Amino acid sequence: MRDLSEILLMDFIMTPQDRLGNIDFNAYYYWTNNGFVARETVKGSELGDGEVPEDAVLILRAELNDNDTGGRYEYDNLTMLAGVLEQLRHFDPKTYRLLMKLNADLQSEGPIHAWMSNSLGLRTSKVQQIVDNTALAAGILQSTCETGALRFDLDPKQFFANGYASEDVQPCTFN
Q: Are 32 and 9 part of one and the same domain?
């Protein structure tokens, strides 16, 4: 769920056209060991082999591995058009805080904005599209947070360690 919500956020900001059917992943076994979450890549490992216990869980972790991830104003923003962010009800608290910090930097033309504008070879219109999409995404998620509909409960390590992930309480706005 955390990976999916982060992909949806990135797609909203970057406007790719080919996400459906184009999600790369790495496969891992996850289990708890003395109260800590452990993982091992599936490559070269099998259940019950070495450190991987028989009851380990196979998880496919999403990976952005795309050389045409959007940032093009010519593309329709399918994630935006479908209203996907408005429907999110679970989100990672750290990702939320980072989005708010990113938005603040981009709106104030801070160091991240300067790096993106000067180092990536993007046209001014493409940079502005990313800035605008980030502001819109932050506004949508902040509004959902303020209504109490957004829960910050996507912590996979806590889920594996405890069998559940408790909700993190945090402010909807950051200065």
A: no
CB 167 within 8 A of CB 150: no
Alpha helix (H) ranges present in 30-110? 78-81, 84-87, 93-107
Domain that holds residue 115: 2-18+68-162
pLDDT, one tens digit per residue, over 83-115 is 989 999 999 999 999 999 999 999 999 999 999
Number of domains in the chain: 2
Cα–Cα distance for residue pair 99/38, rounded to 1 Å: 28
> Which parts of the chain are beta strand (E)?
24-33, 36-41, 57-63
174 falls within a domain: no
57-63 and 36-41: which strand pairing? Answer: unpaired
Residues 6+ apart with CB under 8 A from 115: none
pTM over the 0.90 mark: no
Identify the three-state secondary structure at position 29. strand
